[in-house]
Design goal:
The protein has no helices and eight strands. It has strands at about 10, 20-25, 30, 45-50, 55-60, 60-65, 70, 90. It starts with 7 loop residues before the first strand and ends in a 14-residue tail after the last strand. About 20% of the residues are buried.
Length: about 100
Amino acid sequence: PTGDTVIRISATAFSGSDRLLTISIPSTIKTIDTGAFRGCDKLVSINVDTDNSVYCSVGGVLFSEDKSVLVCYPQNRTGNYYLIPKDIKSISAYAFEGVKNLKKI
């Protein structure tokens, strides 16, 4: 392979992207800074490569690989209700910021 391998998504990498509908996180990503997807008001789904050792996604929602941290809930994900999984120990800052469709968590 040629070129550098991306291992981090910075806090402003996708911030305010008004055309981003879905994103696929490759296995190489080891760090996603807080707020990396802030202002992505059309984002419906965040998908993570199953070989990623740090992050995973369940139903398009971004979690730490062990599912103890809810990292990001896409702002335009469908559904007006979300049940936070019982094994969640923390929720990242801005994880639910700007969410449009949720009425109840």
